[in-house]
Amino acid sequence: MALRGRRDPAPLAGQRSRNQNTMGDLHTRKVLDLTIRLAEVMLSSGSGTADVVATAQDVARAYRLTDCVVDIFVTTVFVSALPTADSPPITIVRSVNARSTDYTRVAELDRLVGRITSGGVTVDEAHEAMDELSERPHPYPRWVATAGWAGFALGIAMLFGGSWLTCLLAALTAAAIDRAGRLLNRIGTPFFFQHVVGAMIATLVAVAAYYFAGQGPTALVATGIVMLLAGMTLVGAMQDAVTGYMLTAVTRLTEAMFLTAGIVVGILAGLQVAELLGVVIELHVDATETFIMPNRPLPIALAVIGAGLAGACLTVASYAPWRSVVTAGLTAALAELVLIGLGTAGFGQVVASGIAAVGVGIIATLISIRRQSPALVTATAGIMPMLPGLAVFRAVFYLAVDEEFTDGMRQLIAAAAVALALGSGVVLGEFIGSPLRYRAGRIGEFLRVEGPPGLRRAVGAVVALQPADSAAPTRSGSQHASSVALEPALGDDTDTGTADGGESDSRQL
């Protein structure tokens, strides 16, 4: 006896992946080596764990390795081909230790993955492209990146309403922090101490400006804090938590908190040095004022322009392609305009920041669909001007100078809430915009560029991909087998699910 109706597919647990190794061990090893290399580049650039796993599995499927297992534990990448009746399992492990934010490399990797998943690229050709991509130096000199950080600080100082002298000092301070960090990184100094030194430089410059020129130290120190916070992967951490990679998410968030503690230590050290030199800073800020928005046309215009400048210059400092600079700047300016509008309407900082970040996530998704820029680049640049640098400075000042523990903790909690709202808001925006990637009617057809995606954004309605060519793969003699095109493995009324032949489920993607 059986009830009529459509049945859900059988669970994947316990199913056989392959009966025999039809591709040969050499081909399998080449494919696994290729997937772990591109996973290393993505992970070192701050991509979410789910994105790395989905992209690596797409590349493996394009080379007919449909049972490739990809797993990431914090900074260790595992790729494996499951055993068959005539071959043992093949596993490769690699640790990602170096961090090098180069968004040009990310964009080139996006195009390479798109070529592979469109078909016609041999494994050897893909390895040669990876050699060229990974061994190529940064696209422009280091002084250009330093100038980008200076422009970023200039924009943040404008955003905070600083005077022309404050903006100039902020740019020079950012350049000094970047060069000091470069030197410390060259000799292998841990990131914690690099943040301590950077925050101390910002604090001492602010104290000197206060003592000699009568400039308020708030905007200068807050600008340095935002610059140091810009390197933290809040978006990737929140995406890992949402997509189920909790250990990696907790590790990233803990690292962000630890580096923030380094900023606090640097500010405290700078204030202590000022006190030893006899400089007493008189700063009185209401601890309940955590969200102060400009309310006149000129300050609003300067804040929006400053946010756009900061977003654009951040992409330059991160070695992004030049065509990404304009889109990143416009996204950051639009997000700041939305933030100011919501603040004027009476919304709190956490809610307003979260809503603005949702808009950033949607815009980043649309731009990535059009293949103008990877979503990671736009999303990171869009939220950086909204990071809570003022709240962190106020918290440290209350704790170190005024010795007001309650007010200081209130500011720290407010800063943490804003940071989490920004990270989770971007992920929610990508979740809302994810249906536009496939099967979204006329809007999706208008936005989406034909062909399979490059680097995946594994948030929301993630579509499983399978080889479009169903012909039987060649035997192990084909060491130069070309990749085959991938197509969505869509059901009748869902965008997610499993592909035929025991593909990984949508959560793994």
From TrEMBL:
Q: What is its main location?
A: membrane
Domain of life per record = Bacteria
Annotated ranges, domain Threonine/serine exporter-like N-terminal = 34-273
Q: Where does this one sit in the cell?
A: Membrane
Q: Where is the composition biased (Polar residues)?
A: 473-482
Q: Quick check: keyword Transmembrane in the entry? A: yes
User: What topology does the record note for this protein and the membrane?
Assistant: Multi-pass membrane protein
An example Gene Ontology molecular-function term: transmembrane transporter activity
Methyltransferase recorded as keyword: no
Limits of the Threonine/Serine exporter ThrE domain: 305-432
Region annotated Disordered sits at 1-24, 470-509
Q: Give TM segment ranges.
A: 149-177, 189-213, 219-237, 258-280, 300-320, 350-369, 376-400, 412-432
GO CC annotation:
membrane
Which residues, by range, are in coiled-coil regions?
Answer: none
Q: Provide this UniProt record's keywords sorted from A to Z.
A: Membrane, Transmembrane, Transmembrane helix
Family listed:
Belongs to the ThrE exporter (TC 2.A.79) family.
> What protein does this entry describe?
Transmembrane protein
Protein source organism:
Mycolicibacterium vanbaalenii (Mycobacterium vanbaalenii)
